[in-house]
Amino acid sequence: xxxxxxxxxxxxxxxxxxxxAVAVGLTVVVFLLPNPWGPALIAVALLGVAAVAGFPGxxxxxxxxxxxxxxxxxxxxxxxxxxxxxxxxxxxxxVTFWEEGVTYGLLVFFRVLVVVCAVLIMVFSTYPxxxxxxxxxxxxxxxxxxxxMASLQFVPEMQRRARAIIEAQQARGLDxxxxxxxxxxxxxxxxxxxxxxxxxxxxxRSLALEARGFSRGGMRNHLIEVPDRTTDRVIRWSMAAxxxxxxxxxxxx
Amino acid sequence: MSLxxxxxxxxxxxxxxxxPALRNLSCSIxxxxxxxxxxxxxxxxxxxxxxxxxxxxxxxxxxxxxxxNVAGKDTTETTIGELAEWVGxxxxxxxxxxTGASLTVLEEAAFALENMGLAREQIRLRAExxxxxxxxxxxxxxxxxxxxGGQSQRLxxxxxIAVQPEVFILDEPTSQLDPLGVEEVFDxxxxxxxxxxxxxxxxxxxxxxxxxxxxxxVIDKGEIKWDGEPREVLLEAAExxxxxxxxxxxxxxxxxxxxxRIPSNxxxxxxVEQAANELSSIDTPGSAExxxxxRTSRHSKVESSKELVFEDVHYDYPTxxxxxxxxxxxxxxxxxxxxGQNGAGKTTFAKHLNxxxxxxxxxxxxxxxxxxxxxxAELAREVGLAFQNPDDQLFRSTVEEEVRFGPDNVGAGPxxxxxxxxxxxxxxGLEAVPEKKPHDLGVPERKRVATASVIAMNTPVVxxxxxxxxxxxxxxxxxxxxxxxxxxxxxxxxxxxxxxxFAARHADRVIALYQGRVLLDDDPRTVFGRExxxxxxxxxxxxxxxLGKLLGLEETLLSPEELLAVFAPE
Amino acid sequence: xxxxxxxxxxxxFSRIASDFTTRAWVLIPVGVGVNFVGGTLxxxxxxxxxxxxxGTILVALLAxxxxxxxxxxxxxxxxxxSDPTLIAFAPVxxxxxxxxxxxxxxxWFKTYPKIVxxxxxxxxxxxILSAPIVVLAFxxxxxxPGRSALTAFFLATGSNIWQSVFTTSVIVEVVDKLISVxxxxxxxxxxxxxxxxxxxxxxx
Lengths: 253, 570, 204
Description:
The complex is a heterotrimer of chains A (253), B (570) and C (204). Chain A is mainly α and 253 residues long. Helices cover 74% and strands 4% of the residues of chain A. In chain A, α2 runs antiparallel to α5 (99-125) and α7 (142-171) crosses α8 (180-211). Chain A is flat, with a radius of gyration of 24 Å. The model of chain A has no long low-confidence stretch (mean pLDDT 92). In chain B, the strands form 4 sheets. A 6-stranded mixed sheet of chain B has the order 6-7-8-3-9-10, sandwiched between helices. In chain B, strands 16-17-18-13-19-20 form a 6-stranded mixed sheet, sandwiched between helices. Residues 297-303 of chain B have low confidence and may be disordered. With 204 residues, chain C is mostly helical. Chain C is built from 9 helices and no strands. At the A-B interface, α7 and α8 of A face α3, β6, α4, α5 and α6 of B.
């Protein structure tokens, strides 16, 4: 799991909705582009954005960890089996790699890379609560915003509980290295306490939320303010224009 | 008209229709009063609280008759949300009641205000002010999941204070906290009382509750058994030998009055200081020798085979935190209590006893076996460890099956397993509920089921982590008997606990941990005699021990009987 | 149990809305958490399955299709913080929630033969929906190296990419989904009645 890196770069100051719009826009664009060059250029540009935001190393490293295995697999699979393969590129023993397949593999890889980089930059540069507030300002239901935030935070808590359960059951003699059938049974010894415990806390939490006006209708306000500046609007409209342009170009040509 | 009025209320949960949780209960609570509520587990205390907050009947369904009025409103005709502006509620579990969606303490305190749609500046001001009131203004940027139990509970209070309700209900707010957390929370509660808030506090901790509240109620089987000035209620309960945790100082004073040693008209003491004041004026016919004579030497057994040996054990968590820093000791038999503040390394220590954690340096031998070379499941035949939270383990459909889980895992034969299961359920007072679903029981009973399942493994070493937490007087009594039985069978019982009274009564040896090292390690009388040293790890000796110290007695006292032997020898 | 609503005379959307009690809202993070933790547990127990949708299925049993669908969606949104590419599979998780929820409402988790069928239906739903995503967005390559190798094997034996991806998915998922539904049913049944949402009375 990775989280927010505080900062005050121009990227941090953008409205979270703008960052999401750019990420979505870029995703559409890279899937419209026909060859690897465009997506590759955009990926490089995104690294530049990460540098402006102050965390180029982190984005590069994580993007590499997340996408390099994919690069290898997709170039292998498509390089060998792409249906449009015509031009041999390289022969290794009985296996032939074809130019068309490798190019297609690279295209898909760069598309994925762009999406990964865009999302990473968005996650690193956006305070999660600000993201929620920005979306509520744009009309998202506060309850949906709540469950998203709560889910994000609940995951580590559940992991902690899962570890506590594993320890407690081992202390009662449950063997993690027993035969396969016993290990499948052990799944129940872990899942049931996990869910039962979670539901008990759900009871408390839903009462606590209810008592703090969670179901209340009417106006809400927020402790933090997430401004939507002119820059944000300019960026969003430009992104929309780019998407339309690329789409027109691809469809007309 | 009173702030809260309850008239002829009877309620039974739809899941337990035949057993009304409250029976024909009537009472009224005035503005500005501090009502303490106590009683045995499952007596109806929580039900009482839920009624006032409207959780019954709006969230928990069942058969409802009678009337509940809060600030002139009939609770059946409002919603939980509306009532929340009048009634604030703090739950037992410090972490479950946080929204789970806040990234800072300040955001958490502001949650209700955001929902109320106040202006941004107003939200900030009110949230900050309520954090200041609970003494957490310095922690406002901290992540709520990084708080201690006591801090978390104070945050829950702050987020309700921010709403400014008329009445605050706190249902067992300290039962899951360490002594430091208990103090913190009760300090805030006292402060709220002086500010004129109306408080209803449910607790088993009468040492803290009785002195602060101006009215004490004992609920028994869904009815109010006693209701009045705390001293009078406690006196009546004590005389009726009712099983609640009467503060030792009050009990001592009551007995000395009965023996004619002190006049019976002044109010009974509720604190160690008050008791010391009262007792300092009378002479001591019994002497230190009387105690020495009556003192049973429990720590005299011949050293047998070493059950557990720690050889210069160090443990660093993967995060780099050193939890154990050089512990060498051996544990043989009897009851060994491990005390110390949270973070002193108690739980880490306990997890080394059965190989759940292996030392990063040094070694731990369990009956001669190096824990680094065995699986936890194998060591479980030697050491049974019962964790604090029963909900981390219960998963079977009946209590009996649940208790059987341990013995089945360690390969006990059917006959042996059956015998041990019966023995363990009997010891833990579960013989009446073998067919019940573990989760249909209350927390104290669930905890006893988890303990029983470990006892039933019949291991030579038994480790209990915080067994008395959340138990009522009867539960604590059962655990005391359990420890006695196991020790008699020649087992080694290790109890990790904050409960110094339990340690004073049952331990043969007390080990105090401080910052991952052994601070003190001796028989309980010696350890609890070192009040200043213990203070470093936030352990306070039992009330009677402190009372003896205040009175200038030479010998360290461990029980009210010993003190009575000094002041009123038979 | 909360917000009791009269079942009579409601439109489609308000029926959906009536599923979303405060208890249901708070259940969603639990389902998301279970989806995550399922993976931890199978790693600890060294079991050859994923259990990465078991939380969605559980919520379907406890609170019906719509709450489960949202659980599925949020799971994949949250997954973004550990692997952004998984956002592409959100529709699959949503569909599993919906299908499992509707099956549950019609009593398809009540007898063992039906549970097996439910497991297979859920598995097929997943395989059918994930195939276009895997083929179009990831060129057939997704998941562990073993999974890619299996797809490559089918390609090598002459299947086209769609067949290969779909077959791989069925083979890899069938055991996982069958175990997921059984574990989910056992777990849901083991939950004490007082903590079960009202919907569960229809489904178990």
